[in-house]
Specification:
single chain, SsgB_sf, cell division, alpha+beta, 4 helices, Transcriptional Co-activator pc4, Chain A, disordered N terminus, SsgA family sporulation/cell division regulator
């Protein structure tokens, strides 16, 4: 992830499209596969750890798929040339709503309000830099709850097993 280079191009890529982006939630199902996903689109506040005072509002898409039941995919700057994708364990978001969770590349914790709304902070670190994101806590809580309805917490292995079984069957069929 090239956080530094994406910081430089954020403002220009966002200025024209902000009015067309808003909070939305959707479920989708891949026909014939029984795979489902939950998508939540929202704006997050991005701060650079290396460039104090740098701040941007970035569109983010949080995706939970039953085909990868342990993970959440997050796409920042969706549709822009500087789109960034991170994938991490969904338990980090759930646990981060109540206490600090994670270490290393991804750390999540609950925090103070921005504009009167409590935030969930997500720190992403790579060799190219570190960014701290602030997402609306209420929206993240809804994301966690709805993802939990698709695959219950502690039940991920059931969905992972079916994916592995499908893969083995496809390999045997050649």
């Amino acid at each position: 992830m090239r956080i530094q280079s994406s910081f430089r191009s954020l403002r220009s890529s966002l200025d024209g499209g902000r009015e067309n982006w808003g909070l939305s939630h959707q479920f989708s199902q891949k026909a014939g596969y029984g795979r489902r996903e939950y998508i939540a689109d929202m704006f997050v506040h991005m701060h650079s750890a290396e460039h104090s005072g740098y701040f941007a509002i970035v569109p983010a898409r949080f995706i939970y798929r039953t085909s990868d039941p342990y993970a959440v995919e997050v796409r920042f700057n969706v549709g822009a040339t500087c789109e960034q994708v991170w994938t991490f364990v969904r338990d980090l978001i759930r646990d981060g709503l109540s206490r600090a969770a994670g270490f290393g590349d991804v750390v999540v914790w609950p925090g103070a309000s921005i504009g009167g709304e409590r935030q969930l902070f997500i720190q992403l670190a790579s060799p190219d830099g570190t960014a701290v994101l602030a997402a609306p806590e209420g929206e993240m809580r809804a994301f966690v709850q709805l993802a939990g309805r698709l695959v219950g917490y502690g039940k991920e292995y059931i969905h992972a097993k079916s994916e592995i079984d499908d893969l083995v069957a496809n390999i045997r069929e050649g």
